[in-house]
Write a structure and sequence with these properties.
Blueprint: H1 18-27, H2 31-44, E1 48-49, E2 80-81, E3 95-98, H3 101-109, H4 116-127, H5 139-149, H6 156-166, H7 179-188, H8 194-205, H9 207-211, H10 215-222, H11 226-237, H12 247-250, E4 255-258, E5 262-266, E6 272-275, E7 284-286, H13 288-296, H14 303-343, H15 345-350, H16 361-368, H17 372-379, E8 383-386, E9 389-392, E10 400-402, E11 408-410, H18 411-424, H19 433-442, H20 449-458, H21 464-467
Parallel strand pairs: 5-8
Antiparallel strand pairs: 1-7, 2-7, 3-4, 5-6, 8-9, 10-11
């Protein structure tokens, strides 16, 4: 008969403090969202104050929050921290970046005349698109998913009608179920002309022949001359085979504003460094009136007064944690950006992708002493302004490999070399992936064929037969 027993088991479990939780949340925020977060905290916590303190602000701006104990006699200057730069309210230096692909489609859908039921179906279709903008799932599957996952009852005919609505959105080609439909959607959205009409005829009637580059068969079947075929082919080859995957270049009319979190600067000695603009982030301090309230209520016996003091102490703790979290966020971002600058110093000098070194999150974590997860949070949604343009910090991270001389090179350098090989090829006889392997090897890069295919796809370079020109 089995017996029941009791035993002790020792487990080590890490519990985050309120300060750590605050810091983690703030680290993820770019500077604009940080400003909004601070404003929200000021509204929620009456103990926090952002009004300038009249007494000797310039003399005592540094604060040690370790000194903010539950002492009833706290000096006013210890209840603030300087979050502001020298210029109290500089203007934002904003830059345009392309907004989320999916969000852009949803926004456009708002201008379509649809019932709430139809809109829900269209939104579900948008959420089902692949990264390249294609709908890879068949209509019966979508009908089932709408019923079981979204609780929306519909049929294939209605889903197809809503798919047609999605296919009218920008960029053209979105929502296609295969490459042929994607190209046709783009052609039908173009200004009518002879070349466009012939291109549509080719894709509708001779798609297989066109894919295999059987130009003689196309000319015979459609009764086209060589010049007509060449003009129509040029139209097709200029179309975007991945309207979702290349949204940065195809979707330029919808943008949002960002503020760089870092600005690259060059000192008088020629050394590179960076600044962290403060913009509209206010100076935070603990309102001394609440500390005085605690002092006046010392020894109070009335229950209501004690409850008030307890409330103030809780808000005081929350204010201290928030101020310290903002401070730690600044220090964490500064240390991480310095490590990235040091690691990729050659690139920041030249702006040439060939100078980018292979770098992963673990490399920066090792230099800074931060966890990889912390470095990942710093890198997310942060930008640096350089003389060569605005770069997301994620841009500087990439895997790498060794070249023929044993030197490590980044994937961006490999992609640049691959683009140069394709640009230099004879378009009448484009290089296959196997031939591109040889061309890359001649440049000193020993890359496998599957890697060539992967990079070619990421660069939006079609396969050899699609690059062939008359």
């Amino acid at each position: 008969m089995p017996t029941l027993g009791q035993g002790l088991e020792l487990k080590q479990q890490q519990k985050l403090s309120p300060l750590q939780i605050q810091t983690i949340k703030l680290i993820e925020l770019p500077v604009q969202e940080l400003e909004q977060r601070i404003r929200a905290e000021l509204e929620q916590n009456p103990v926090l104050d952002d009004t300038p303190n009249p007494e000797s602000e310039e003399e005592r701006t540094e604060v040690s929050l370790d000194e903010l104990q539950e002492d009833d006699s706290i000096a006013p200057y210890k209840l603030r921290v300087n979050n502001r730069g020298r210029d109290p309210m500089p203007e934002y230096n904003t830059f345009s970046i392309h907004e989320s692909f999916t969000q852009g489609l949803r926004d456009q859908l708002g201008y379509c005349e649809l019932t709430p039921h139809e809109r829900e179906i269209a939104l579900f279709i948008i959420g089902s698109l692949d990264d390249d903008g294609y709908l890879r799932r068949d209509l019966p599957t979508l009908v089932d998913d709408l019923a079981f996952r979204a609780g929306i009852q519909t049929d294939e005919a209605e889903v197809e009608r809503m798919l047609a609505v999605v296919q009218t959105l920008d960029p053209p080609g979105i929502g296609a179920r295969d490459l042929r439909e994607c190209l046709l959607l783009q052609l039908r959205a173009e200004k009518p002309g002879e070349a466009v009409r012939n291109a549509i005829r080719i894709l509708e009637s001779c798609y297989t022949e066109f894919s295999n580059r059987h130009f003689d068969k196309i000319m015979a079947r459609l009764q086209l001359g060589a010049d007509e075929l060449k003009a129509a082919t040029a139209k097709i080859l200029r179309l975007n085979p991945a309207p979702g995957g290349q949204v940065d270049s195809a979707y330029e009319d919808r943008t949002q504003q960002i503020v760089p979190d870092f600005v690259l600067t060059e000192g008088e000695d020629g050394r590179l460094s960076f600044e962290m603009p403060r913009f509209n982030i206010p100076q935070l301090r603990v309102n001394p009136q609440y500390a005085e309230m605690i002092h006046r209520s010392q020894g109070a016996s009335q229950r209501a007064q004690k409850d008030a003091v307890t409330f103030v102490r809780q808000k005081l703790d929350a204010a201290k944690w928030f101020i310290e979290a903002v401070k730690q966020r600044h220090n964490t971002l500064q240390k991480t950006m310095q490590a990235i600058l040091d690691y990729q110093y050659d690139f920041f000098l030249s702006g040439d992708d060939a100078d980018l070194k292979p770098m992963v999150l673990k490399d920066i974590a090792a230099v800074t002493g931060f966890d990889i997860s912390t470095v990942s949070r710093v890198v997310s949604s942060k930008y640096i302004e350089t003389p060569f343009g605005i770069y997301p910090l994620k841009y500087f991270f990439s895997e790498g490999m060794e070249n023929s001389e044993g030197e490590e090179v980044s994937t961006r350098e490999l992609k640049k070399a691959l683009s140069e090989c394709v640009a230099a090829e004879d378009k009448r006889k484009p290089l296959t992936d196997e031939q591109l392997v040889d061309a890359m090897r001649q440049k000193g890069y020993d890359v496998a064929r599957r890697t060539i295919a992967k990079y070619r796809g990421q660069l939006g370079i079609p396969i050899a037969r699609w690059r062939k020109e008359l």
